[in-house]
Amino acid sequence: MSAPGAPRRIATGALRALGGGLTVVGIAIYLGGGSIGRAKRERACQGIRAIRGALDQYRQAHGTYPPDLKALAPQAPDPWGRAYAYRLEGGRAVVSSLGRDGEPGGDGPDADIAMEWTAGQAQVSGECQLTGAARTEDGGPT
User: Fold this and answer.
1) What is the chain's mean pLDDT, rounded?
2) Which strands sit side by side in the sheet containing 92-97, from one edge to the other?
3) Residue 119, pLDDT score
4) 30 three-class SS
5) Is residue 115 within 8 Å of residue 127, measured between CB atoms?
6) pLDDT tens per residue, range 29-71
7) In this structure, is the dihedral angle defined by the CA atoms of residues 92, 71, 47 and 59, taken in order, positive or negative?
8) pTM for this predicted structure
9) What is the distance between the alpha carbons of residues 66 and 13, in angstroms, rounded to a whole number?
10) Domain boundaries, the chain
11) According to the model, what pLDDT value does residue 90 have?
12) 136, 108 contact by CB (below 8 A)
């Protein structure tokens, strides 16, 4: 026969262990989500590449890039549910996502993801660049 209160102690211990495990999982997700964070950054790059393709098609048809993304077919939001940003900087087009935190700049999983190219540059697959500290040695997303 078990001592009085033994099942409660076992249940309490199990809940503490479960709570500790959930805390570790929560911290991992907050710090970038490992493969989840990488998958979202890659999806953001895919979205940016798709927008670049649409911008290049618009330029071929109209002789110039549009002033904003409203001139294109509606674009899906970035993996964090926000619109992609687009700007022209004197002959260079830039498409970007503000990353996980939705704020300009940031490091690690909060780094912005961007692609820029010179107007008229031949269509290439394109590499996304992270603007914060989260870069691989070749400059690509981590």
Assistant:
1) 76
2) 85-89, 92-97, 113-118, 129-130
3) 72
4) helix
5) yes
6) 455 456 788 899 999 999 999 999 999 999 999 998 999 999 9
7) negative
8) 0.65
9) 61
10) 1-30, 33-130
11) 81
12) no
